[in-house]
Design a protein that fits this description.
Elements lengths: L3 E5 L4 E8 L2 E8 L4 H16 L8 E7 L3 H18 L3 E5 H13 L3 E9 L2 E10 L2 E11 L13 E3 L2 H4 L1 H4 L16 H13 L22 H13 L1
Parallel strand pairs: 1-4, 4-5, 6-9
Antiparallel strand pairs: 1-2, 2-3, 6-7, 7-8
Helix pairs in contact: 2-7, 3-6
Length: 236
């Protein structure tokens, strides 16, 4: 079984996870301002607890977005830095798919609507269907106003994510809002679970080719983010 390290910092919750022999261990830290300081120590704790070196991993996965600019770039930069140093491939995974995975685990639903607060009066959303053990995109990840979220009709559709509570008036009359699991957020725990199939399916790329998923305009790395990337390379 593959050993994969996963990193997720696309929202207010930063997390990392290590999957080994099907078992997942993780760490998490709240507070978007502390992601760059928190993620590397958490990674080191996980590896030490498992008695592993970074080079013992088969790949590094990260939440590529959609999510906050700083968050997805932090995850990508740390994943790239660690992968460069250890000579590992990288898996760029969609944060909304990780939410669907968590929603399925919590509810048993196989038709999922993931809605993540994108700030500035908008949300990121996608609709997924679980079939034959894999997630299939019904509506691809998109950025829009809350009132424009339009999932395709599906029996048993369950919605999740903090976008639903961030704009309650916009979703008040939507049938999918009833019973929604608004507490579910992107987490490295689910990324690690998804990463095994992604690695087996040939989705890994060299560190230099890993890219965040932006649904808004790209902007350059800040000096602080570059410092995090350099720290990750040194740590590896």
């Amino acid at each position: 079984m593959s050993i994969i390290l996963a990193i997720e910092t696309s929202s207010e919750l930063a997390s990392c996870a290590l999957i080994r022999d099907g078992a997942v261990a993780w760490r998490e830290s709240n507070g978007v301002r502390t992601h760059s300081q928190a993620i590397l120590p958490m990674v080191q704790e996980l590896l030490a607890e498992a008695g592993l070196r970074l080079a013992d991993c088969d790949a590094i996965a990260f939440g590529a977005g959609p999510g906050s600019f700083t968050g997805v770039r932090t995850a990508c930069g740390v994943a790239q830095g660690l992968a460069y140093g250890a000579g590992l491939p990288v898996l760029a995974l969609v944060t909304l798919t990780a939410m669907a995975q968590a929603c399925h685990a919590a509810s048993g639903a196989t038709e999922i609507l993931a809605v993540l607060d994108a700030r500035m009066g908008e949300v990121y959303w996608a609709q997924y269907r679980l079939a034959d053990g894999a997630w299939h995109s019904v509506c691809a990840p998109a950025l829009c106003a809350p009132g424009a979220v339009a999932p395709l009709s599906a029996a048993g559709l369950v919605a999740c994510g903090n976008g639903l509570t961030a704009y309650p008036e916009a979703f008040a009359l939507q049938p999918f809002a009833a019973g929604a699991l608004a507490h579910i957020m992107p987490h490295a725990r689910e990324l690690a679970q998804l990463a095994r199939a992604a690695l087996a399916g040939g989705a890994a790329v060299p560190a230099a080719e890993a890219q965040p998923l932006y649904l808004r305009n790209k902007i350059a790395y800040t000096s602080a983010e570059r410092a995090v990337i350099n720290a990750a390379k040194a740590a590896a």
